[in-house]
């Protein structure tokens, strides 16, 4: 009752407070500031109230003392309430710890939006024994947590890292459409929709459009959502994922693989060059080491030998044979055993898409490569593309594809064809490898997979 009567007004003799974000707090020590955010942690001790304030740009410890700590609002603070705090940030003496080794001594605060306590309190709804499916229902709250938000921050830095690496390597960014009328990676995973009465699909890959850009824009890349109606319910399949794709002209298979190594290593260097991100990545994956070049190159046929020799079997328990699709579990076992990035190359044509160029040395196989990473398996699918119209028509026929809607793709072979190749990287898989996450669902904002299209 007493607490309810304590009303604190802002002391008008204090200097005006400068509005800052938490990331600016180090640069604004020892002057009066105001900072808004959410109560991330809360603790009271001997009449003092300690708040760790979060605003997305960082964390700031704030302390309330004296009458301020006795107000009704302060005594009933709840986690996740939003608040604006006024005061002075000063370095902490040796032996005390807080984010950035400093603390804001509060002289005034405004409670902006009070979050519920008791059963509805955030820490009652989300705890270590909350089921994975409830955690996804509550993803909008889960992302306020330190681990989820750290992954999302590393994700943003990785996108920046890719864009910078592409620029360093001389590729131009384009934005292909998401609504299309052609398939790229097989009809069975197409999401179909009604487009003004016509049948259309959500894009599986922007590859075919990137190929059309080579003659006008040179080597190109895009970072675009791809959609797959996957039947497989695994920790590395999403229905919507961020696809980093590139296409390069006038190069051979070996040059393509070298380019991919450069892109991956340059991107990682760009990510690590930022000290804040590098620190976040260490929190998620303390033993992360950038891979060394060249990556191990292994032909599909050698992988089949490896699987046979090591008695790694297919999902039915049978030994692998040349021509088999190497299933996820076997691929991952092999990759984890080898323990470093592997380019798996020269897959049989029958296992791969209609557009892949065959090897001149062995006509059964294609100039294709998957990049496999420990912990996740395939993160990149790459290949040289068919450059001759006749070979392309045989590819359409083998996959039972009607060539007519692909006239614009075929035209690339007609109007000045060139040797070219490209690749697609699943951003969430790449992040799962880099950030050491068990499932790629943790590497996107709101995962979409079989049976899940919300929130
Ligand atoms: O191997 P994919 O199917 O290759 C293509 O789509 C090519 N057209 C890309 C190109 O050459 N431009 O897919 C490429 C990558 C995979 O290696 C994987 O990392 C990711 O996309 N990917 C998925 N990621 C999450 N969920 C799924 N359902 C995925 N399907 C593929």
From TrEMBL:
What keywords would UniProt list here?
Answer: Aminoacyl-tRNA synthetase, ATP-binding, Cytoplasm, Ligase, Nucleotide-binding, Protein biosynthesis
Molecular function GO labels:
asparagine-tRNA ligase activity; ATP binding; nucleic acid binding
Can you list the GO cellular component terms from the UniProt entry? cytoplasm
Q: Which biological processes are named by the entry's GO terms? A: asparaginyl-tRNA aminoacylation
- Which positions fall inside the Aminoacyl-transfer RNA synthetases class-II family profile domain? 152-447
Please list the reactions this protein catalyses.
tRNA(Asn) + L-asparagine + ATP = L-asparaginyl-tRNA(Asn) + AMP + diphosphate + H(+)
Keyword Nucleus set for record? no
**Similarity comment:** Belongs to the class-II aminoacyl-tRNA synthetase family.
Protein name as catalogued: asparagine--tRNA ligase
Which species?
Neolecta irregularis (strain DAH-3)
Shown part of the complete sequence: 114 to 568 of 568
């Amino acid at each position: 009752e007493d607490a309810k009567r304590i009303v604190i007004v802002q002391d008008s003799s204090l200097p005006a407070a400068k509005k800052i974000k938490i990331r600016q707090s180090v640069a604004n020590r020892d002057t009066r500031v105001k900072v808004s955010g959410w109560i991330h942690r809360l603790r009271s001790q001997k009449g003092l109230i300690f708040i760790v304030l979060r605003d997305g740009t960082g964390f700031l410890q704030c302390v309330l003392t004296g009458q301020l700590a006795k107000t009704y609002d302060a005594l009933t603070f709840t986690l996740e309430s939003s608040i604006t705090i006024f005061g002075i940030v000063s370095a902490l003496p040796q032996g005390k710890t807080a984010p950035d080794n400093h603390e804001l001594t509060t002289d005034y605060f405004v409670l902006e939006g009070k979050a519920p306590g008791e059963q509805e309190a955030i820490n009652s709804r989300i705890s270590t024994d909350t089921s994975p499916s409830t955690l996804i229902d509550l993803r909008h709250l889960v992302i306020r947590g330190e681990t989820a938000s750290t992954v999302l921050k590393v994700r943003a830095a990785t996108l920046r890292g890719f864009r910078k690496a592409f620029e360093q390597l001389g590729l131009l960014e384009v934005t292909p459409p998401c609504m299309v009328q052609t398939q790229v990676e097989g009809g069975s995973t197409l999401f179909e929709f009604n487009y003004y009465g016509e049948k259309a699909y959500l894009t599986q890959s922007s590859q075919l459009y990137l190929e059309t850009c080579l003659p006008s824009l040179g080597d190109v890349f895009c970072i675009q959502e791809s959609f797959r109606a996957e039947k497989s319910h695994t920790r590395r399949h999403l229905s919507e994922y961020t696809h980093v794709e590139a296409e390069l002209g006038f190069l051979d298979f070996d040059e393509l693989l070298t380019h991919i190594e450069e892109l991956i290593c340059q991107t990682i260097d760009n990510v690590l060059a930022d000290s804040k991100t590098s620190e976040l990545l260490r929190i998620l994956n303390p033993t992360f080491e950038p891979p060394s070049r060249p990556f191990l190159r292994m032909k599909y046929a050698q992988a089949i030998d490896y699987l046979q020799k090591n008695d790694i079997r297919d999902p039915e328990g049978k030994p692998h044979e040349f021509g088999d699709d190497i299933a996820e579990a076997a691929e991952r076992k092999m990759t984890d055993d080898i323990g470093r990035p592997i380019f798996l190359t020269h897959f049989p044509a029958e296992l791969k898409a209609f557009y892949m160029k065959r090897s001149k040395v062995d006509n059964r196989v294609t100039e294709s490569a998957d990049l496999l990473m420990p912990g996740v398996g395939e993160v990149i699918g790459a290949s040289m593309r068919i450059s001759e119209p006749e070979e392309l028509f045989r590819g359409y026929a083998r996959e039972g594809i009607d060539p007519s809607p692909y006239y614009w793709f075929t035209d690339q072979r007609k109007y000045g064809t060139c040797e070219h190749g490209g690749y697609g990287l699943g951003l969430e898989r790449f992040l799962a490898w880099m950030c050491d996450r068990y499932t790629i669902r943790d590497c996107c904002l709101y995962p979409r997979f079989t049976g899940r299209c919300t929130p």
